[in-house]
């Protein structure tokens, strides 16, 4: 069951002639199954009669209200219209040959002007890019020189690092020698202290024996021996303190 058709009569004003607007309307009407026609008016507007199923017709109107550049719409007025059963396709109603030739040449001229204007913009933009490129090229030269300076400085640092590394290796070797010498000194010191401890123990033992013996001797003899023992003790203490 086919849906009921509706129809509109539409008047469009703006930049709508000699810019391909009629062709744009025709292509979308054929794609959506819209019937009717479009034609240029003497006052520069475009008149459209369109009929079809409501959903398709509304979609068609939404599309032709927003055409691509360089078409520009200032006014879009639609009015309800009667269905024309004699119309079963969509067409462009052309004017006279002179009008259509003028339309075609006008469209080409307009398009050419737009392209020329766009080209001028691109040319100006190209000049800006060219100047920017020159600036970047100059900046690159500065960076290149700076890079050479950094590279030279890096070579100096690399050589300096090699010198530090060699010097560090020498210090490390010297440290190993000192560490070995310290270990040897520590071993000798431990042995000397052990030996002194043993000797001091023997001397203390001997002194104890002598004192015990002194207790049995006379007072004078004890005094002489005591002085000798004190002298000997001082010598031992001095020897231990110097060690």
Specify the overall morphology: rod-shaped
List low-pLDDT spans: none
Strand content: 15-25%
Number of helices: 4
Number of strands: 5
Strand order of the largest sheet: 4-1-3-2-5
Which sequence of SSEs, written as H and E, runs from N to C? EHEEHEEHH
Largest sheet: 5 strands, mixed
Structural class: alpha+beta
Q: Considering DSSP H and I runs of 4 or more, what fraction of the residues is helical?
A: 55-70%
Overview of this protein structure:
With 243 residues, this protein is an alpha+beta fold. It folds into 2 domains: 5-94, Alpha-Beta Plaits (2-Layer Sandwich); 96-205. 68% of the residues lie in helices and 16% in strands. It is built from 4 helices and 5 strands. It has helices spanning 21-32, 54-64, 97-214, 219-242; strands at residues 5-15, 35-40, 46-53, 72-81, 90-92. It has a 5-stranded mixed β-sheet with strand order 4-1-3-2-5. It is rod-shaped, with a radius of gyration of 59 Å. The mean pLDDT is 80.
